[in-house]
Write a structure and sequence with these properties.
Order of helices and strands: HEEEEHEEHHEEHHHHHH
Strand order of the largest sheet: 1-5-6-4-3-2
Bound molecules: 2',3'- cyclic AMP
Low-confidence stretches: 4-10
Shape: globular
Strand content: 15-25%
Largest sheet: 6 strands, mixed
Radius of gyration: 18 Å
Length: 276
């Protein structure tokens, strides 16, 4: 079996700590601190992993990120594998979509931006699902993991730390309940269609600018119970019919009734033409 060390060595460039010049903390992720830093004349995001216990998760994140190459996915340049473990990634100066949607000061954007973000996210996810020999399932799509560049025009998927076993996922990701497909928290087997569910919630969120399931309060267990009972976000007033249909199909309880990510890209590309 492939050891952790082999994964580190094979997939990414080993970077020495003294090559990284930290500039400022940009935030705290699910298992580490993210710095804006300079590395070889480039601004980068340096994600330091707090606990040695997370080494397995990081290994998975490195393994996943090093296989992907897509304009809507943050690139991994390399990693420091000597403690403190650190991932060196493409920097997204616009921060997360979550901050744009719900941060202060309130950012201004229009429905065209919202559709473009959802469309770009769908293209990144479709790429992951089309990977060979095996589809890559993201499993934690949500606005805090979607990053923006170029004044918010470009959206990139930025966090792969959760593509690991279900138990770790459930214990580390209580904050993700609002985007989680029911089959995931119910402990059933699941497929890439769980990302489709999350994408539907994101679409609702960018169109309404509201946090999903705010009405139930922030408690992850209550959200899961609510969704398990068949509740979904409320309809959007004056929502164009094709978007509403797409969104509600993504939330189907039966994952076979959800569209594929390729379907979503196709439908969004035709809707996007009306909102250039
Ligand atoms: O919302 P933010 O400003 O954007 O705060 C979070 C925080 O780190 C924890 O995830 C930010 N972040 C994560 N990855 C990157 C990146 N590649 N470029 C810029 N900011 C990042 C994220």
């Amino acid at each position: 079996m492939e050891s952790e060390e082999t994964v580190f060595q094979h997939f990414v460039e080993e970077i020495n700590h003294n090559e990284i010049h930290q500039i400022k903390i940009v935030g705290k992720g699910s298992f580490g601190t993210v710095f804006k830093a300079k590395w070889r004349d480039k601004f980068v995001a340096a994600k330091y992993i707090d606990s040695a216990g997370e080494r397995k998760t990081v290994t998975i994140e490195i393994r996943q990120m090093s296989r992907v190459n897509h304009p809507n996915i943050i690139k991994l340049y390399g990693a420091c594998t000597v403690n403190p473990i650190c991932l060196i990634m493409e920097y997204a100066e616009g921060g997360s979509l979550h901050n744009v949607l719900h941060g202060t000061p309130v950012a201004s954007y229009n429905v065209g931006h919202a559709i473009s973000w959802a469309y770009q996210c769908a293209q990144g996810v479709a790429y992951l699902h089309n990977m060979k020999p095996k589809a890559l399932i993201h499993r934690d799509l949500k606005p805090p993991n979607l990053l923006l560049q170029e004044d918010g025009r470009i959206l990139k998927i930025g966090d792969f730390g959760t593509a690991c076993d279900l138990k770790t996922y459930m214990t580390n990701n209580k904050g993700s309940a609002a985007w989680m497909a029911p089959e995931v928290f119910e402990g059933c087997s699941y497929t890439e269609k769980c990302d489709v569910f999350s994408w539907g919630i994101i679409l609702w969120q960018v169109l309404t600018r509201q946090k999903p399931f705010n009405e139930v309060g922030g408690n992850a267990w209550r959200i899961m119970w609510w969704v398990h009972q068949g509740n979904r976000p409320p309809p959007i007033e004056n929502c164009p019919k094709p978007l509403e249909d797409l969104m509600t199909r993504c939330w189907s309880k039966n994952s076979d009734e959800r569209p594929s990510m390729n379907d979503i890209v196709r439908i969004m590309s035709s809707i996007f033409r009306f909102f250039p």
